[in-house]
Amino acid sequence: MKILGIESSCDETAAAVVENGKAVLSNVVASQIDEHKLYGGVVPEIASRRHCENIHTVVTNALCEADCSLEDIDAIAVTYAPGLIGALLVGVSFAKGLAMDTGLPLIPVHHISGHIAANYISNPSLKPPYLALVVSGGHSHIIEVLDYTKYRILGRTRDDAAGECFDKVARTIGYPYPGGKSIDEASLRGDPNAYPLPHPHVAGSEYDFSFSGLKTAVINLVHNASQKGEQLSFDDLCASFQKTISEILISKTIKAASNLKYKTIAVSGGVSANSGIRSLLSDECKKHGFEFFCPELKYCGDNGAMIASQGYFDFLAGKRADESLNAAATMSITEN
Ligand code: KG4
Ligand code: ZN
Q1: 35-89 per-position pLDDT tens digit
Q2: From the CB of 11, is ligand 1 less than 6 Å away?
Q3: Does the beta carbon of 108 lie inside 6 Å of ligand 1?
Q4: 166 lines ligand 1 (CB under 6 A)
Q5: Where in the chain is the domain with CATH 3.30.420.40?
Q6: What's the CATH class of domain 128-294?
Q7: Domain covering 2-116+299-316 in this structure, CATH number
Q8: Index of the ligand 1 atom closest to the CA of residue 9
Q9: Could you give the CA distance from residue 250 to residue 143 in angstroms, rounded to a whole number?
Q10: CA of residue 117 to ligand 2 center, whole Å
Q11: Using an 8 Å Cβ cutoff, are 92 and 22 in contact?
């Protein structure tokens, strides 16, 4: 079964054709990063306009690269929540028009379940149940993946998402948006023990995260040094920050997997591209006897293939939408 997946929840216009949830026939991503970089973050109005301009070409190219026409496609999957509302509406409206025109089934896909499905593409042997750590620009969740379409949220961030924290620290240092990758690169040159940073305590839930204290600690360090005219090593600071955020994310994930007796941990989302997080989580999984999975780098950030993949599992579970489908800026993965 071939599914066309469409993704436009933030600053990537993306489309892909995926067969039976795992075989990627094409994966086209038109990134708007260079334009949003000028403003230090995503400008929602610009994102919507660029999606409008690009979506037809991106979908056409995805079909073309898969050597398909619409007649070869069995269903259309589209991200409908959560994300920037104006951005989501472009993908949803386009997918609805296409579904109405062709008579193909329309499958509404939750963005976070799409990130989780990225692992089915890169690791076809992965099967639920397992524990997922989803870390992106907008989300940080520890999720029990009970089945391909059934989830339970164990922990989430109380304030900033992990990616947001990377991006804000990067901005303080003077790196361009989005800063996660620059911090990752600088970390490779720095000493992770140079600057001790706080591991925040989160009252009330042992699996929830809080990153605002860590972010503020880094910002204060940079500002205090600049007021005193002291020189900080940004490489050391990045390495120390990356080590700390990795430890926070991974210690809670390992604790959750141990307590709930999961045997498998899978990380995904844009921040799962981080080399420190990938290697520490892989090491910790080895140490604790868990099987570890992560997506190939090209499926970590937003893409259409992950939406087409999850669309396949949602289709098998009977999920469908009609022409009344709307987008939602916020929606829990368990409500979808
Ligand atoms: O999943 P994604 O593409 O979009 C959302 O759903 O939010 O994630 C984007 C986030 C950004 O915050 C970006 O800085 C972060 O992923 N990111 C990274 C790395 N590559 C991208 N963070 C840390 N290390 C990286 N190598
Ligand atoms: Zn995302």
Answers
A1: 999 999 999 999 999 999 999 999 999 999 999 999 999 999 999 999 999 999 9
A2: no
A3: no
A4: yes
A5: 2-116+299-316, 128-294
A6: alpha beta
A7: 3.30.420.40
A8: 6
A9: 13
A10: 12
A11: no
